[in-house]
Amino acid sequence: MPLVRTEGLTKAFGALTAVNAVTLEVQEGALHSVIGPNGAGKTTFFNLLTGQLAPTAGRIVFDGRDIAGTPPHKIAHLGIARSFQRTSIFPTLSIADNVWLAAFARHDSWRGLAWRRADRYPELLERALAALGEVGLADKAGQPAREISHGEQRQLELAIALAAAPRLLLLDEPAAGLSPDETQKMVGLVRKLKGRYTIVLIEHKIGVVMSMSDRISVMHFGSVIAEGTPAEIQRDAEVRRAYLGGIAPP
Ligand SMILES: Nc1ncnc2c1ncn2[C@@H]1O[C@H](COP(=O)(O)OP(=O)(O)O)[C@@H](O)[C@H]1O
Ligand SMILES: [Mg+2]
Fold first, then answer.
1. C or N terminus of the chain, fewer CB within 10 Å?
2. What is the set of domains in the chain, with CATH numbers?
3. CA–CA separation, 24 vs 233, rounded Å?
4. d(Cα 228, Cα 237) in Å, to the nearest integer?
5. Cβ(41) to ligand 1 under 6 A?
6. Which atom of ligand 1 has the smallest separation from the CA of 222?
7. How large a percentage of the chain has pLDDT more than 70?
8. What is the number of other CB atoms lying within 10 angstroms of the CB of residue 237?
9. 218 has which bridge partners?
10. From the CB of residue 228, how many other CB atoms can be counted at a distance below 10 Å?
């Protein structure tokens, strides 16, 4: 059974149909990539899944219920988390406190935050530290967030998403803007998360996508023009014309 399924999902901005009747299924536990040229509608698709945008038409069935039009905070509570959307990070707080706060915000109401302390929520603190461990930042947990590098900031954003114990993790170009070294680290992290989370990955580095995806959907001008395993996508003539530009098989 798919964890999430969109049916005819559409978003129009005036005359521009950014996402056009997208029907797409993501199986539980899969790493499903969405590729396509700039402007294809990939990020808009994520914005629909997280409730940042309301669809013009279509359905989003998550875990058996239609969540189209549900506001972002409710969707977050249902277990859809997104990383790499410029998460607000509090620069003077420690890395651990940033993650803990994000976990708290999802777990409970904000009421009482002023007088309750992290040690009153041992399970949240534990989850925050576990998430930092998962992204390789455990040894920096006590440092102020402002002291970390750009690559580490992206790792922190990923930890914040993981601390929410998401059922569906949406990653929008996790390696964008990173140095080659940082990119390698981030790709390694995503690889480690594969199988433990259901992941939808938007990524431009085609080698990365081909090597770690279970399935790939290709978007072009708002529509899904192909869907299949990496091998199937590599062979697809229309995909090659539209996007891959004759990339050689691995
Ligand atoms: N909020 C918006 N208002 C108007 N047009 C938008 C908005 N968001 C995205 N678009 C347009 O929708 C199209 C798809 O954008 P986007 O989803 O960001 O593509 P991708 O992530 O695949 O590069 C682009 O033409 C973009 O300019
Ligand atoms: Mg985008």
1. N
2. 1-79+166-250 (3.40.50.300), 88-163 (no CATH)
3. 15
4. 13
5. yes
6. 14
7. 89
8. 8
9. 35, 226
10. 15
